[in-house]
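User: Can you fold this complex?
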Amino acid sequence: MIAEDKAKGYIARRVAKEFKDGDVVNLGIGIPTLVANCLPPGIQIFLHSENGLLGMGPIPPEGYEHPNIRNAGSSSVSFLPGGAIFDSAVSFGLIRGGHLDATVLGALEVDEKGHLANWMVPGKMIPGMGGAMDLVTGAKRVIVAMTHVNKNGSPKIVKTCLLPLTSIRKVDLIVTEYAVFRVEDTGLVLIEYSEESSVEEIKGLTAAHFDIDPRLKTIER
Amino acid sequence: MKKKLITLHEFSERIPSGATLLIGGFLGDGTPDLLIDEILKTDKGGFTVIANDTAFPDQGIGKLISQKRVKKAIVSHIGTNPETQKQMIEGSLIVELIPQGTLAERIRAGGFGLGGILTPTGIGTIVENGKPKLHIDGKEYLVESAIKADFALLKAKKADFYGNLTFAYTARNFNTFMAFAANCTIAEIDELVPIGGLNPEEVVVPHAVVDCLIRGNRS
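Assistant: Here's the predicted assembly.
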């Protein structure tokens, strides 16, 4: 097993390699947020936040927080030079209109067709979908960044999502601490795996069928 | 010319129990806290609140929930407010969850004279249950009706006496288009400036959709 604290860093660093210089990207709460700190040298991306900003910068030093410069998780953030403010209608125009190059989200379940469930567990947890349904429906690329199994050790990649779907739009890439899957029309294709693991171990941790890319390689750490 | 500046007391007298309220803000940022506190000084309740979220139990819209003044909340997210979830499970509060972009656009449609919107968001999920669908150019869309309300309660940064509004950074969020979608739009403002004191380029919401202004703490 790969320890959880180590896993988060692995996932964030691998996702960070997916972007081109100048991409407009929305990062979800949790592991996706860590991606911003892992970008390779020479790659600058523009961070979008649902509550109405583009060009979001890091958390300011203590004592420099502005009460009205916040991200979609209510944390104090900052603007980078060239940043922009807009209302929620414009913000979701960027999202739904296909103007985000990518969105990175967590998941409760992803199935072998690439469908994502990440917004409720009936009877247990009903936080609401917030912006997730619009993000998955509208972004040019949807990248799932999640631990391979849940806290009980059960696979999060399943044959068919039992939880309510976020969108019928399939995700494009699934990145875990063990594996990277590309989603194709035929289903999941394993393209990279952790050198601390093996394809056999990944099969044991995955409750869905996946094909193996002939150019399969280990994840660069 | 109608005078738009009113007192907090005049404000709360205008809001009847059971009214439908659009309330600006995103997790409390851009929510008119003074207006909410003034409502809480009365015994009025039974409101339908339409907003992005219910913030936190002791903050913004969350205070209306915690003091049981809300019978129905139409929002995109309640994950930060355990009290909302508790009342929903108990059955004392009706919660209607709407995707954030759909909620924003339904309110915008209401204020902009449209009957509704067509959106791909929610197709193939439980959000589409019971809603009509349309195929346009080979793509499927949900038909989502426009939203309007009795009152819009907004938070703005600056206003002139006419009611032109500017906003502070991310406090803008739902406040702009909500201004259009209510029979009576009331803005709590941090700063009042004379007519001519705003550069027309900085005005975000034009005065024609603002009915009342209330000076906030910093005015």
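Chain B has one domain: 8-116+147-215. Chain B touches chain A through 43 residues (CB under 8 Å).
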